[in-house]
Each structure stands twice: as C-alpha cells, then as structure tokens.
Known about the structure:
- Its EC number is 3.4.21.89.
- It is a single-pass type II membrane protein.
- This protein is of the alpha+beta class.
- It is 15% helix and 32% strand.
- The chain has helices at residues 3-38, 239-242; strands at 40-44, 58-63, 95-99, 105-112, 117-121, 124-127, 130-131, 133-143, 149-158, 164-169, 182-183, 188-192, 211-212, 216-226, 250-251.
- Strand 9 (149-158) and strand 10 form a beta hairpin.
- 27% of the residues are buried.
Amino acid sequence: MSQTAMTKAEKKGNKNELLDTIVVIVEALVIALVFRTFLFQPFSIPTASMQSTLMIGDYFVASKFSWGLGKYSFPLPVPFNGRILALSEPQQGDIAVFHNITDEDYIKRIIGLPGDRIQMKQGRLYINGKQLDRKQVGTGTDTDSYSTTVPVTLYEETLPNGVVHTIQEISDDQPLDNTAEYVVPPGHYFMMGDHRDRSADSRVLSQVGYVPAGNLIGKAEARFFSIKDNLPPWQLWQWPANVRWDRMFQSVYQTYTTTPAP
C-alpha cells in the first residue's frame, strides 16, 4: 500500500474513532437524562429545616416514579398540571421534594392530605381536631446554616396513619407554635419541617403555603453521602475529618410504624 493510501486510511480511521466517541458521549448523556427524569434525582440539604432526619450536608436521592411525573419533574418545566404515570399517592409521613412558589426546590415532610385540617397549639400538632401523640426521646443541640447553635428537645411524633418520625423543638412557644387552622385544598398537600422551629413551611402561606400535587418532584428515599458544614464533596482532603460515614447509604425513614388509633 502506498504512503498516500495509508494516510487516507489513517484519516478515515481517526474520523470513525471520533464519531464513535461522540456517539458514546451522547448515549451516556441521554441515559443520564432519562435516569434523572424518570427514575432518581440527587439532591443536597443546605438548611436546618429537616434536622435531624436530614442534616445540612446530607446528599440523598428522590424517586421520580413513585408519585408519577409533574411539570417540574423534567429538566425544564412543561406546561401541564397534575401528574402522569403515578404508581402511588403521597402519604402522611412521606418526605417530599417540591417546587415552591419562591421558584426554589424545597424538601419537607407531608403532614396534611387534601381536606385535612391542620393547626399548631402551644407547640403541639393537631390534625382534624386531634392532638398527635408526642413522646420525648432526648435532648441535644442544633446548628443551622449560619453556624448558630441552640439547645433542642427531640420527640417521636405519631401521625394518624401510624407513621412515627422524629422531630425537634427549641421550645413550644416559638413564632409558628400557635397558628390558625389550615384547611388543605383539594389536590394540595401541607408540608412541615422536622425541625419545627427552624422551618419555613406550609404554616407560612406567603412563602410556602399549600403545595399543589403538580409541584411535587419526587419522594426522598435514601442518603448516599453526608459531610459536615456543607463542604463541597469534591474536596477529598476534607473527607477524613468531616464525612459522616454513619449517615451514608441509609433510608431517610424510620423503620417502624405503630397501629393507628381507632
């Protein structure tokens, strides 16, 4: 084979290799996009509103398929309301990622379903006129994103469907510990943070309020990484002293429930 023929063959081979590489990259991007849109999406926790269930610096995945797809399930919002391809309905005690009226993604726990009546009285939660059971399980401290540390009391709270989850309170006389009664509209949900005194949630109608079903993004499922002080995960040299190894690869939910009261 002549030198000229070899050069043409080499150029053709290089072009084919470049094309193959581009195809592989495009395929990988499409697979990642499909995975993120229809299956699971990662999120991180920047604030103290869900502590100690989800700590500042926790990273978790939310399932996109559990409640179906809404307008904010896609990389760009799509012009439709409601949800499609839903496998189940959100339940009290589920931890939801949702798009808020402030044009941000929030994460809170679902406390009220459509039609429920929600009220706080002296730090206690009432659903449909009944005060929820609350049992003190410990004390501790809580540090927010501004590095402000306060003492807190930890409680186990039992929702009407029997789900038990942990909340924490600074006291029972904070600004959102006494509210009017909220009535959840049809097709909406009432969200609250597990840190009741450091959470702007559905109790603040002008900031969060009732969350439309179409604004739900996904159901939080499991933590896969956790680092103190919300340090960037790529700073590997910070890992030995700051990674919370005991919080990784765990469900975000308690593993037990109780039988609902008759």
